[in-house]
Specification:
This protein has about 80 residues and is an all-alpha fold. It contains three helices and no strands. It has a domain of about 55 residues. Helix content is about 75%, strand content about 0%.
């Protein structure tokens, strides 16, 4: 019973952390406003000028998502076995 609360709390923290990380990431495209105005964010070095930060954020998002899904499945199994 206590483990369910711990996993539930971890899921809430993971959800908040993933939300923050996803909001910090930059988009892959400039969107409609750039298409209309003709603006571009490309620099002399190309689109991957600051790629290390973006790669780290992308990897963190993937890892946290996998952990989130795994904990959700574990919690589901624990709740279903406790109900039976």
């Amino acid at each position: 019973m206590v483990a369910q609360y711990i996993i539930g709390g971890a899921l809430i923290l993971l959800a908040l952390l993933m939300t923050g990380i996803i909001l910090v990431q930059t988009g892959k495209s400039d969107g409609l406003s750039s298409a209309i105005s003709g603006g571009s964010t490309d620099t002399f070095f190309g689109k991957s000028g600051g790629s290390t930060k973006e790669k780290l954020l992308k990897r963190a998002t993937i890892v946290l998502s996998v952990v989130f899904v795994a904990l959700t499945i574990v919690l589901m199994i624990m709740v279903s076995s406790a109900a039976a």
